[in-house]
Design goal:
Four copies of one chain form a homotetramer. With 218 residues, chain A is an alpha/beta fold. Chain A has one domain: Vaccinia Virus protein VP39 (Rossmann fold), CATH 3.40.50. Chain A is built from six helices and eight strands; from the N terminus they run H-E-H-E-H-E-E-H-E-H-E-E-E-H. Chain A has an eight-stranded mixed beta sheet, with helices on both faces. The longest helix of chain A has 15 residues. Chains in contact: A-B, A-C, A-D, B-C, B-D, C-D. Chains A and B meet through helix 1, strand 6, strand 7 and helix 6 of A and helix 1, strand 6, strand 7, helix 6 and helix 7 of B.
Chain lengths: 218, 218, 218, 218
């Protein structure tokens, strides 16, 4: 199963996807036992390890530009006895050239290159494959949604996840917030078959107006 | 894997745990292939079915007092080809008498009887077993936390989960809130071995004061 | 107007109500120019100062048990040229004895004595008066709601407020969470005239069951 | 004071800014008694009326393209005895031509024309003036932030506000979510004097990378 506790990972100074975000990201990716997965901006490898345990007959490519991260991924893979992770010390999109056809792409860090990464991922992703992306900035999220809207062979859903942990203080439990994350899940279809993706035109933008105004005051 | 899409379940008028809450609940329950699970207030059976798919050599007892719910659980089990669900048309805590020793209890609806249900669940739960509860009211959550604090063989964590879905409106994506849910996860230890559970006394309440004041203004 | 920026207050090590929570708390208190206000657990005095500026012909009693807080309140009152604050270095409920009849009570820190504080506030609060309370723990919130439910001359509303600040990182804006706070606003009526307060019995608890189950899965 | 209860407004079918969002929007606008204010996408006029009560010697221009909205604003102004609102039945940015120099602009509905509206508002806004905008879509928020970043005489802050109301169900209080809103507050300075606004270049985007990756996993 998924959801290794945060403190069980060897962490160093490399940041890590929090357990609840990790659980939702992996579940949305719908990974199968034979799947090939790429984890872009793999950090400590927490997503890679959860993915590798499910894709037991497949493989996870863990990409990170930071050598310290690569080292941690290797250590964590050993700690959790996971043998189907291939680490790639490099930066997306270039580093994706070393990757075969994939079923799933997990994108944690995009470094301001979300369009280029999505294009490179798309080139490797099989029909039926999934991309699951985590965002903490408005701009990266907006860029991603824009890319997906302009590719009519992708169907997506997007959520914002806000987790508050109740910290035990003896008799009391106090709510402590974790920074919210947006999770975007996109599925690849054959061209023009992602039926519910709406084509966009300037006319649409104006037409969206009444809806938006209605929304904002609702 | 977990996370069946909401609209794939046959629903009728019975309410259903939303996909993201379901994913987190099932992941926190840490279900094994041989586990015996009870789902209290099973509703449409969405949690039961996700649990039953994981506990493939075990069994899920799906309890609901509403005959319509029992009917839906049966239909959904058939739809998802799940054969290890036993439905119990009754009300917790009484209905728990029909259940064997369990590894996991999922508690969706408590109907104001959270203490009684926890006591009955405890009587059936193996050492090492997990209880995962979903709450939408302040009072049920507070009662549950109080029960857990007064049982020194349980260790718990609690989170609040707030999900906003981005609704696609052509060019725009608009945030739509889902009602927040608290998820409490408790693990059963041998007596006095849940080390981090703090014993409570009236003195503690007063002692908690500086912490609380610090917290509220932080 | 209300909403002094957080960094304008002299703070020391005393925690402070964040600007957005302060704005909502003061607005919900519906303070008038002639009002007498008590601020319990006044901390840096940020709420007291905002209240005192509105209650320009009235008075704000700022109660805190910490002498450092009293000192900060005095400094901040001077900084913001507010002259209608009376500081009381003591602990509620006892310290409330020094207070006259009041129109508004603001309760930031309750130190586990929420029932006693509400009872003491009630003794000083005029008919038509408002109590606005901030909570960060499940238990204090639950205690407060319980007290209000058992007093049929109070009508209340309660909200949870979660604020994320977007931190400017050059091209990007990243969401940073602030710990959520519950704000409870109660208005005092003549006995039995708070029409929408529902009387509670054990029967009610059972009757609430279908609603709750419906809620949790909705 | 601010924070008229939602149900006190005459509403019709026109959507309305919820009380808590209204309180924060008005407080962030820091309106003075002599201020000239424009409310773009005024809807029922709820923001206009709160603003007009504070700007008692100034004036509020309430712009809406929907004649039904204009009618409701007029009715609500009468109900709340507010006489300093001038309604303009038209669409921003064009409708802004009828407006004098302003101290404050409130922007509720932008209808996909956020850039054009900000440019037109800027032309009317005095040095020291404030723009407070409410957003419910990722794209409008991102466009607004982009406009502000590229104008070095504006300094801004942005927050996301999520309110859950506790609905009273007899013994229980159940959390009900309201759709989240982003509130952006921008203040106008003389050219090049909004010190903390960072100039942006493509190089910056790449440089932002480590921060972003750090953020997302933090």
């Amino acid at each position: 199963m998924i959801g290794i506790e945060d403190e069980k990972f060897i962490r160093g100074n490399v940041p890590m996807t929090k357990q609840e975000i990790r659980i939702l990201t992996i579940a949305k990716a719908d990974i199968g036992a034979e799947d090939y997965v790429v984890d872009i901006g793999a950090g400590t490898g927490s997503l890679s390890i959860e993915a590798a345990k499910i894709a037991e007959n497949g493989c996870v490519y863990a990409i990170d530009k930071d050598p310290e991260a690569i080292d941690l991924i290797t250590q964590n893979a050993e700690k959790f006895s996971v043998e189907n992770i291939v680490t790639i010390n490099g930066e997306a999109p270039e580093a994706l050239e070393q990757v075969k056809k994939i079923d799933v792409a997990l994108v944690g860090g995009s470094g301001g290159l979300i369009d280029e990464i999505l294009t490179a991922v798309d080139a490797k992703l099989k029909i039926g494959g999934r991309i699951v992306l985590n965002f903490i900035t408005v701009q990266s999220l907006a860029s991603c949604l824009n890319w997906l809207k302009s590719h009519n062979n992708y169907k997506y859903e997007a959520i914002q996840v806000q987790i508050n942990r109740l910290q035990n203080l003896g008799f009391y439990d106090m709510a402590r917030a974790i920074n919210p994350v947006h999770i975007v899940t996109a599925k690849k279809f054959r061209h023009n078959q992602a039926a519910n993706v709406i084509s966009i035109s300037d006319a649409k933008i104006r037409n969206a107006q009444p809806v938006q105004i209605k929304g904002i005051r609702d």
